[in-house]
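Support request, please re-run this one:
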Amino acid sequence: MSLQSQSEFTNARQLSSIPPLHSARELTRGGTQAQIELDGKVYDLRITRAGKLILTK
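Re-run finished. Output below.
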């Protein structure tokens, strides 16, 4: 998807009732782990070898 198409797609999602879409691969920067903060609490997101997602406190 070109940068312009991706931007238009993102803008359309933001204007609609469709929830935002985030790539787990981008969140982990190509690795297998990322941290997500919500209301001062940090959660760990992990991609398993089987390609599943695990979110823990």
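Residues 23 and 29 are 10 Å apart (CA to CA). The chain has a mean pLDDT of 88.
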